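>> received
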Amino acid sequence: MDLSAYRALWQTRGVFALLTSAVLARIPVIASMVPVAFLAKDAAGNFGWAGVVAGAYSVGMAVGGPLWSRLADRRGGKRVLIATGMAWSVAMAVLALLPSDQYRLMPVISGLAGAFVSPVTAILRASWPRVVQGSRLRAVYALDATAQEVLFAIGPMLGALVVSFASPRAGVLGAAVGAAITVWWFGLLQSPAVPHDESRGARLTAPQLLWHRYRFPMILSFAFCVTAFASVSLGIVAFADAHGNRLIAGVLETVWAIGSLAGGVLVGALPGRRRSYVWRRAVLVSAGMLLCVFATSSPVSLGIALLLSGLALAPTVGALYERLGAMTPSSVKTEVFGWMGSAGMAGGAVGSAVAGLVVEAFGVRYVWVMAALLTLAAAVSLLHIPPHLPVDEPESLDLQPVPQEAL
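>> returned
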């Protein structure tokens, strides 16, 4: 291990503030999931309506994400972040204060809120190459992926705590206020909009951006991975329910997140003296999922398997971020990460739905069979992606991104 990359990151101006503000700006959005679900359930009297409201929110996110990301590339992230952050907060406040007898309006308001989710993640990941280079860039992407895992571990828990000790309305209102403050802070850290510079690369249409020999396979691979991860989350819930103790689900999710956290930190500290192929990491994720298939006999064995499988999760996602950024012109970096997020949203919705059918038809362990196949498909789609090279190794022509005129 080599901690010099982390020391260099700590000493690089702007890195700590960007990462901290981005993490805090994403927490309210993730923490709002649980309160919104209970708010919808209490209003309509069933969790089926909560699924409808959540589905509308996901559709809004999938549609709005690429649009706001593209606008951020054109006009600068500062105004886009602040405008969408305030709009999301207003929509969530309206949702929280909506009278229960008007619950039929909840999907409409939820869809609008989803459409105004600030492109914090896309803007952050597009910003890293402008802030750090070399081994520090590899380390910061690993940290970014690790932070995402931490967010999904603590965000829903925070929402559940507010629901338990206060109410769903308080949870949604708290998320609205928290986002207004944190997104504003993250927005203030962005550079002001600048006129388009041809040296940053040509403006690309959405088809030109997506239908690319490197970018499309990476976005597709990310969708496969998120589909697998969403199916595993539902499989964990089904496993806990089968054992008659729903607390097991929280424990197993936390163990899985800890494994990913450890893997991300370790990979970020590696010296990076060898070529790193992202498909190899995806194969390790698939092997971890396959290990879980044979560990469903008890919570302890499954917990150990999830811990081991999680070790490769954040490193794989972090490598995908780094490679996608390296293969994209700087003029559309934010947009491509927006499309990546939308692909992940679609994959997550499909994974949860299909995993439920798999559990009912075949049993819980086959959810991990499904996840292993999906992550293997992700690895196959990445076979032709150029590797990340050591800093001191000159890149050959076949490893360079496609020239701008060929895009």
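>> The chain has a mean pLDDT of 82.
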